[in-house]
């Protein structure tokens, strides 16, 4: 595995130290990063690796902690993504990762329709896949407990991107509906024994080429929607801590990591943090492929395409997240 050097390596810890919001303490079974045996991750294209728990492919096991497909999987980062890096490079002990994320996912397809009907929403990831296969009484392939597992959820990018124009004057109201469904699913996980949760807020996709290319009004409206969603997420996680016995929960502020990099891209090794190169947008043969028409190698771009960051961004996120989990 290649690693960063110089300034970038030094600044990872600085970002990590400022990227997480720790909620009030409660008695919990969180063992720290080094005590975890299982990650259960849920989300969209920022998280997916193409893992399939039902098709008979290799499942996560000692020596192959991510199972199928072969590392780094099918990602939207042109290399490993944050859950890849967290599992393989920034873990403290071998942790088996069951990654149910699906590209294009929304919280609930009935509230925000995905771009294609076959996309598995967070609701389907939790109810059909996790609860259908890995709740404790069915979990022979992963005998997890409350004290050795962490549930990681990064969702909301597509919910906001597909709805902020439709709800310009009622985003808080609509986001409360989304949060009701989101935390109903968290309650379902809690009911089968989940106690340790890591929630990631939505990054500043208002700064992505996709939104910027739509003009100032789109940027302004999505900026407001992001603030609304992330504020409500923090409130719901705080309520979770207060109302559910034994819960350990943390909000990881991916938004702060993104903004820190975007404000100082060269400090983190990025030569272009504004646009993307069309020759790179669908992936390249190597993680650091260079095409002359793009000016710099693909991994020196922040954005791989109009919405997805490159793997080096994910590496910084994973390093910061690992630091936040070492409590």
UniProtKB/TrEMBL annotation:
Pfam families: Lipase_GDSL. Keywords: Hydrolase, Signal. One of its GO terms (molecular function) is hydrolase activity, acting on ester bonds. Gene3D superfamilies: SGNH hydrolase. It comes from the Eukaryota. Residues 1-20 form the signal peptide. This is GDSL lipase/esterase. It comes from Sphaerosporella brunnea.
